[in-house]
Fold this sequence. Notes:
3-stranded antiparallel beta sheet; 2 helices; globular; 58 residues; alpha+beta
Amino acid sequence: xxxxxxxxxxxxxxxxxxxxxxxxxxxxxxxxxxxxxxxxxxxxxxxxxxxxxxxxxx
Length: 58
């Protein structure tokens, strides 16, 4: 299965509780941290939920 890299670009301070838990579920804890996850519809939904805090890296 294909994988995508996700990078946290902004702090989670000021984000609501759901967005903070979504970042933790993705495995993101720090700014500039990059994780590699499988490209599934559920992961895409999580990225869409916190799109203003993360970016997809090529």
